[in-house]
Structure formats: C-alpha cells, structure tokens
C-alpha cells in the first residue's frame, strides 16, 4: 500500500493479530513480536495492507494487555522496543503498515499514575482517576462493571471509591482533567514518531463518561475530547484511526468518521454483531437473515458519502464466525467462503481476524482451559444466579472470547507450529486438519478466497466507491446486493444457508463478468448450499 496517498485506508484490508496467540519465537509458549516478523511473508501473500496488533505494551495481563501499565514500553513477554522497530520496518518493506491498539479509557491498577493516586487525595496523580467519597458497602450508585461486580471499588486508606467500567484492575482515567488528556496525547505522538501507520482506539466512546449520571458511552463532552485529541495528535497525518464504538448509532458514526477527518478515519461498531444477543451476551435471542441484512443495509446507506465503517465478522472479543453463523462441520470451508464474500463485497474497510482466513472454529474447552477474565467471572456469576454448570458452559462455549484467542494454527505438527514450548492456552485439536500449511497447499481453501477478495478490492473501484442496494430483503437464505460506482456495477449473491436456494440472476447482469465463484460454474437460477458469486460489469 502507498501510505502517502490520501485516504489510503479506504482501499485497505486490515489483518488483526492477537499477539499472545499468533507465533511464539522463543519457546515460552507466548506469541511475540519476532514471531510476527517471521510470518510477514505469509501475510504479504494473503495481500493485507495493515496489521492491527492487540496491545503489546507493558501490562500485568489481567485483561490480556487491555490493562496497560506503561504506554511507552513493550511488554518483555512480547519483545523489546527494538523488536517493535524491526517489525515496523520489516512490515513497511512489504507494503504493510502497523496499527497499535491504544487503551486510553483506563490503565492498569499497576500503572505508575494509579499507584501514585493511591498515595493520597493531594497526590498530583490522584485526579488522574475518577473518585467519589462514600462509605464502605455503599457505592455511589449501582453501576455494574462489564466483567461482573460493581463498577466502583472501595479504597479504605482514602475513604473513596474509584470507578472502573471493566475489571477493578482497570481503573478509568479522568478525561475531564486536561493533564490526563495531555499525557495521552504525548503517548500518541511518541508512537507516531516511531512510524506506525495508525491506531485502533479501544472503547473510545466511553471517555466522555459521567458516572454520576450513569452515562458511559457517548457522554456529554465526548466529541469535544475526541476533536481535541485529533487536533493535538494524528489530525492531518494521513494515518488510519479506528474508533471502537460499541454505543454508536448511525448519526454518531457519521460524526466519528466524518470525511473532514476531524475525529477518526472510521468507526468499528457492533450493531450487526449483537443481533443474536439477548438481555446479556450469555443469553441468545433468535436472529433472522432478513434482520441482519436490514441492519447491514441501513449502515451501508447511512454512511455512504458521509462516513466510513469497518467490516468485520470476528475479532478477539467475538466467537468465530464459521461456528456462529456458518457451519463448522461438513460445510466449514464453503460457509467460511460464503461469509467472506458477503462481507468483503460491502463498502468500508474489511478486517480479517487471525485464523479467519483458514476458517478457524470455536473451541469448546472445559473451565480449566479457559483463560479470559470475562468468561471466568461470568461462570461464577451465572452459577450464582442459578444456572447449572452445563448451562453456563454452553453459554461460554457459544460466545466466550477465548474462542477467538486459541493459538494460530500454522501446521498439523506439534502445537500447530505455534510454539516449541507449552502454549499459554490450549491449541484447538482440529489443527491437524485446519491449518495454514494445508490451506496454502489447497487452491480451493478459504485462504485463497480471502486472497482473491483482497486483490479484487485493489483492482475494481466499485468495491471502494459503490453505493448499496439490497436485493430480496425478505429472503431467509440469500444475501444479495448490487453496488454501483467508479464506473462499475457489482452484484454479490451469497447463499447463507446449508440448503439450495433459488436465485434468478438479475437481467442486467446476464452478460456480466463472473469475478468470483466459490463452487465452480454457477447453476442457472439457483445457488448451491453456501455458494457465493460476485459479478461485475461496466456502467
Ligand atoms: C475492548 C477490547 C476488549 C477489552 C475491553 C476493555 O472492548 O476489545 O478486549 O477487554 O475493551 O479494555
């Protein structure tokens, strides 16, 4: 990718790496930066333009790096600053940029700022965090932490509570304090000076919170803070910036990703990914394909020309898509390919989460093999609420974050080629069949569908520029849409079911070029189970 071109990220495909689970180089069982460097050729072959690394900064790892104790240091478990510089350099030599994951909403409770803050109310760092006076046992209000328990933790020495949206080990920073904001802007500028291609900003729509009003996302001063951050750091620098915004609606998303570049390049929102979620993430509700299509169509049309979206089925917080909305049994390959085509034909910047390009699946591990603080806490909470062991484990197996975090499956060999030591997390036993070596050797593999989709985005302008019209909105099996723009028209027709589906090719595409077909020559008037087609024609 030519990173000097304006808005280069609109043509880019981003690959997300969970460093702990990508590639170990030193046999300690934990993935690291030299490990990533050793796999750059593989990523270049796939064709991706940038790598988003989940946090690699110094951290006690209460939430696997989303609890940072020093924003300017690499955790020794991942390597050194020199390794990071080598990664940036080696990636750039292959036309690949590096995105760092900045967790600016909270720090670790081991961060120097928090340790100072604990020393007394008059310590200069005390006001870096959010405190309220109170009595033990009576928190300021009933707000709950995302990982279970109250969002307030009592510090007897101070006679105060501090606020944490996530675990108690992740105290929220007080963004209302201008000194905090300036510290963080300094951090961003120092990483810009290292030559990164951009940033992913963790739960960034929470930094304007007002805990007294019980408001976390989209708080009253949020836009002011985000615009200030932009002006003082990456604004005008031609970097890619991705705002993780769980709470964004379309109107908000237009502001966060406004084409004037005043906040971020793009939003990373979750409306589609929670459609099958009930009152909590552990309680499912039925989702229909028409509901999913309707939501995607609203966002496609709602941001066209006035905002920019991220396209993803997976990340480190979500279960594997092929197990979730595909078929991870007999039709694993076909359904992974169908889901890939359905997503990569849309407008926005596509993300591939490590192993998605292999069709990696969920892993139903027993409790003892789980590692995620969220799942471990949820198990206790659900049991305390009267769920049986089997019910709680079924919920965790369905949506737990560890599904995404099992080590990358490079080969059928020992530990899937991930480590020469003992992996920090169990390897999915299906690595003997599902692995990169096997995928690379098979022209019909999921890997090559992703490779083709990435290449098409680079050669056909309609992928980047086209608008969006949904076809057959009520169809329960077929996701089909037409996009027009850049002098082309694109038709995507995807059977997202395991049954044959009727699909008459729209008249105007009868002579069009077949760009991609996942199951050989198309059959007239129908789609095979999990079959996906892309047609393109000049306009
Ligand atoms: C984001 C991250 C998630 C983390 C949380 C707290 O949602 O993606 O992994 O646990 O923020 O930092």
Automatic annotation (TrEMBL):
Gene3D superfamilies: Glycosidases, Golgi alpha-mannosidase II, Oligo-1,6-glucosidase, Domain 2. The keyword Transcription does not apply. Residues 16-405 form the Glycosyl hydrolase family 13 catalytic domain. Keywords: Glycosidase, Hydrolase. GO terms for biological process: oligosaccharide catabolic process. InterPro entries: DUF3459, GH, GH13_cat_dom, Glyco_hydro_b, O16G_dom_2. Pfam families: Alpha-amylase, DUF3459. GO terms for molecular function: alpha-amylase activity. PANTHER family: ALPHA-AMYLASE FAMILY MEMBER, NEUTRAL AND BASIC AMINO ACID TRANSPORT PROTEIN RBAT. Belongs to the glycosyl hydrolase 13 family. This is Alpha-glucosidase.
């Amino acid at each position: 990718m030519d990173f000097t071109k304006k808005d280069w990220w609109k043509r880019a495909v981003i690959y997300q790496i969970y460093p702990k689970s990508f590639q170990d180089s030193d046999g300690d069982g934990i993935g690291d930066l030299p490990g990533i460097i050793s796999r750059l050729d593989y990523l270049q072959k796939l064709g991706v333009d940038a790598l988003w690394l989940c946090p690699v900064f110094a951290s006690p790892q209460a939430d696997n790096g989303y609890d940072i104790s020093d924003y300017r240091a690499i955790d020794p478990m991942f390597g050194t600053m020199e390794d990071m510089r080598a990664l940036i350099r080696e990636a750039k030599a292959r036309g690949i940029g590096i995105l760092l994951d900045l967790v600016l909403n909270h720090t670790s409770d081991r961060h120097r700022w928090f340790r100072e803050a604990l020393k007394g109310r008059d310590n200069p760092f005390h006001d870096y965090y959010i405190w309220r006076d109170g009595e033990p046992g009576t928190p300021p209000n009933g707000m709950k932490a995302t990982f279970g328990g109250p969002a307030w933790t009592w510090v007897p020495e101070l006679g105060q509570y501090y606020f944490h949206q996530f675990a108690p080990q992740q105290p929220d920073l007080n963004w209302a304090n201008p000194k905090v904001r300036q510290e963080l802007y300094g951090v961003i500028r120092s990483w810009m000076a290292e030559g990164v291609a951009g940033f992913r900003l963790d739960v960034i729509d929470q930094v304007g919170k007002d805990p007294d009003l019980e408001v976390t996302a989209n708080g009253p001063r949020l836009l002011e803070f985000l615009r200030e951050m932009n002006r003082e750091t990456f604004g005008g620098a031609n970097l890619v910036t991705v705002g993780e915004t769980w709470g964004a609606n379309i109107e908000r998303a237009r502001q966060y990703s406004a084409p004037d570049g005043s906040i971020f390049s793009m939003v990373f929102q979750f409306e589609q990914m929670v459609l099958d979620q009930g009152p909590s993430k552990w309680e499912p509700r039925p989702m229909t394909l028409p509901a999913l299509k309707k939501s995607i169509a609203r966002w496609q049309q709602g941001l066209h020309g006035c905002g920019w979206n991220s396209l993803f089925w997976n990340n480190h917080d979500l279960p594997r898509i092929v197990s979730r909305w595909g078929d991870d049994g007999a039709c694993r390959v076909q359904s992974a390919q169908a889901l890939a085509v359905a997503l990569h034909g849309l407008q926005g910047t596509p993300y591939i989460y490590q192993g998605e390009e292999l069709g990696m699946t969920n892993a139903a591990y027993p409790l003892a093999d789980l590692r995620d603080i969220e799942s471990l806490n949820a198990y206790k909470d659900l049991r305390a609420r009267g769920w049986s062991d089997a019910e709680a484990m079924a919920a965790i197996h369905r949506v737990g974050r560890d599904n995404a975090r099992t080590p990358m499956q490079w080969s059928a060999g020992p530990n899937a080629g991930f480590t020469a030591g003992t992996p920090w997390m169990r390897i999915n036993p299906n690595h003997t069949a599902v692995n990169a070596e096997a995928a690379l050797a098979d022209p019909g593999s999921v890997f090559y569908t992703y490779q083709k989709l990435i290449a098409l985005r680079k050669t056909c302008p309609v992928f980047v520029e086209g608008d969006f019209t949904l076809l057959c909105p009520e169809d329960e099996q077929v996701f089909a849409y037409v996009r027009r723009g850049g002098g082309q028209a694109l038709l995507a027709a995807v059977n997202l079911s395991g049954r044959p589906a009727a699909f008459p090719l729209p008249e105007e595409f009868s002579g069009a070029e077949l760009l991609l077909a996942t199951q050989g020559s198309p059959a007239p008037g129908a789609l095979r189970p999990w079959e996906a087609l892309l047609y393109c024609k000049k306009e």
